[in-house]
Fold:
Amino acid sequence: MPLLSVEDLHTYYGEAHILQGVSLRLDEGEVVTLIGRNGAGKTTTLRSIMGIARPSRGRVTLRGDDLTRRPPHEISRRGIAWVPEERRILPNLTVLDNLRLGLRGAGHPDGATAFDEVFDYFPRLRERAQQRGRFLSGGEQQMLAIARGLVARPSVMLVDEPTEGLAPLVVRDLTEILARINARGTALLLVEQTLEVALALSHRLYVMDQGRIQFEGTPEQLRKDPTIQQRFLEV
Ligand SMILES: Nc1ncnc2c1ncn2[C@@H]1O[C@H](COP(=O)(O)OP(=O)(O)OP(=O)(O)O)[C@@H](O)[C@H]1O
Ligand SMILES: [Mg+2]
Structure:
């Protein structure tokens, strides 16, 4: 049984038929990346899994349990964390208070241990624990957004464009940290526009265009497929 399964999802924004039958799966231990042009429907897919966008058709299951159209707070309580593309950290709260928000509704009491774990990944955040969010760099804000998702100890993390707008060195750090998070047992469904990052991190990739999955395969298979790259990834 897949850890997370998405079957034939259709999602509309008003009259616009955005997701036109998206199916994908994420297995225990995997990093899977959704890649594709602007407007392809990547974020809408994550929002539909999270219950923030409401699919009109299709199914989302976690270890076989149907989560379709359940409210977002329930979906996060069941073990899916969402790190949105806009890195919505709270600028007036400290790093620690931002992390405490990640514990809300997670149904596990031991904040101190969870914080220690995330500070292990992000030592920089430990140093800055008392700083307000707005004084963090872009890279640190992204790290905080990921850390806030992690404190709930999700089995699946959905991470939308974690490297967007960050300097190459920060991208490299973040790529390494995401790989470590995965190696310690969290399955990741990423949206990533940088092909090299996606290829380096993923066990499998899905290429999306116009609300449909156009390709599924391993990094090896995608590397060897210039047609898919040219048609859907503008390389
Ligand atoms: N709230 C909304 N209301 C109406 N249309 C929307 C809304 N959000 C997104 N769309 C449209 O839905 C389509 C898919 O958008 P989505 O954000 O899922 O794409 P994306 O693949 O994440 O793109 P990007 O790479 O730019 O983040 C686009 O045509 C977009 O204009
Ligand atoms: Mg997006």
In short: The chain has ten helices and ten strands. The pocket of adenosine-5'-triphosphate (ligand 1) is lined by residues 13, 16, 18, 36, 38-44 (CB under 6 Å).
